[in-house]
Amino acid sequence: MPSAQRSDPPTSAPARLVETSxxxxxxxxxxxxxxxxxxxxxxxxxxRRLGELAHExxxxxxxxxxxxTEQIEARVDGGAVFAVRSARHTLACxxxxxxLPALILYDLRxxxxxxxxxxxx
Length: 121
What we know:
Blueprint: H1 13-20, E1 24-30, E2 36-39, H2 44-63, E3 71-76, E4 79-85, E5 90-96, H3 101-118
């Protein structure tokens, strides 16, 4: 169960998520417009691309709904993508095929609550 330390900046959330969950392969933190705030991957090009794809997924989910989507789970052959968001942040991750959705969503929500608490508006 990831949880931010009081001294951890919100930008460390994606890296902490990967470190604390054996199933999370990569994670990104985005602003409401889809801009990359932070990523678990040191390769900026890959991190930006994951952020773009996560944002596109959220935009598509919103277009299919009558209200903003708060959480997303998209399964593919080799794994899944999960995302949770607030009005100020989106936290998205790519996970291994056998990851348990309830645990991943719990970890994402807990981390997002920690981000919001550490970065008050």
